[in-house]
Design goal:
138 residues; alpha+beta; three-stranded antiparallel beta sheet; globular
Length: 138
């Protein structure tokens, strides 16, 4: 299975989707898709690492909480993240997000992401791997 992220159209908002061999890696790819709404993830240096923990009753709510935690950290720290390491343990997620302070001339931020929604929210096995997707409000 080829791990990747992609965007999908959803009216005025943007769908973020991560596909990978494991559920945790799919969550990482969904986070890369989130960053890619704002800037090219490859342009983000990994200068600082932030620890993120969340817990939710199911995989879908955990994905939404994870992406919203990233959006919160980006806003309060004025950072972008380009590398993620996610560990899932039942209903708990613990992760490291690595990135750097936003540099407008270098990152050319396209939009501000306001939040992950529950629209088309889905975490499911697909083709021998995992899909993690939702729509983000921009």
């Amino acid at each position: 299975m080829h791990e990747h992220w992609e965007h999908y159209d959803h009216g005025a908002d943007i769908g973020v989707r991560g596909i990978a061999s494991t559920k945790a890696r799919a969550f990482e790819q969904a986070a890369l898709a989130l960053t890619a709404v704002i800037t090219d993830p490859q342009s983000v240096a990994t200068r600082e690492t932030v620890q993120i923990r969340c817990e939710a009753p199911d995989d879908e709510l955990l994905l939404a909480d994870w992406l919203n935690a990233l959006i919160y950290e980006m806003a309060v720290r004025r950072m972008l993240f380009g590398r993620f390491q996610v560990e899932l343990n039942g209903t708990q997620l613990s992760a490291q997000a690595s990135g750097e302070a936003v540099s407008v001339p270098r990152h050319h931020p396209a939009v501000e992401v306001k939040g992950a929604t529950y629209t088309t929210l889905r975490v499911a096995p697909v083709d021998g791997g995992w899909l993690a997707q939702t729509v983000v409000d921009v």
